[in-house]
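Entry 14. Structure prediction run on the chain below.
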Amino acid sequence: MSTEPAPRIAATAQVDDGARVEPGAVVWELAHVRENAVIGAGSSLGRGAYVGPGVVLGRNCKIQNYALLYEPAILEDGVFVGPAVVFTNDLYPRAINPDGSRKSGDDWHAVGVTVRTGAAIGARSVCVAPVEIGEWALVAAGATVIRDVPAFALVAGSPARRIGWVGHAGARLVQDGDAFRCPMTGAMFREDDGQLFPVESGS
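Output returned:
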């Protein structure tokens, strides 16, 4: 039996039939949750946010105002999405076919954005699907992500490029000899072939 309180859904929010809002979740004013989407336990969906059909949010995600998460996005637990972030879902966006006929849902195949546990996407960033944001990574505000982001990476710019590493607390890591250290927690990390790995205590 869940110990979370019942979900809170604002009167002006729209939650379509078949969507699931789990215990402890909050859906604020003017947000729209489409059919078959899942808002995980303890997650928060800000004012005017949009969650497309079948999009899945894990536990304790925080989606800020006016973020647009188009299907088939998948967000694992503890993901932060800043205000006005956009997740795209179409490799070749067009309103019409080459013959001039209006495109229908059968004329394209959606591709999605996947965001791993603990990652954060800064305000007004655009993630161009298909792309994966690794666990605990940090996408700087205003970035345009067009390629996969490694775990713990700090990326910025358009197109986004790695400019450093971050730890679990979100602070930029500092180099400490051959390793990297989190200035907030003291946790140590090592880089190997363009990937970052936590150093276990005593190792």
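The chain has a mean pLDDT of 95.
Filed with the rest of this week's runs.
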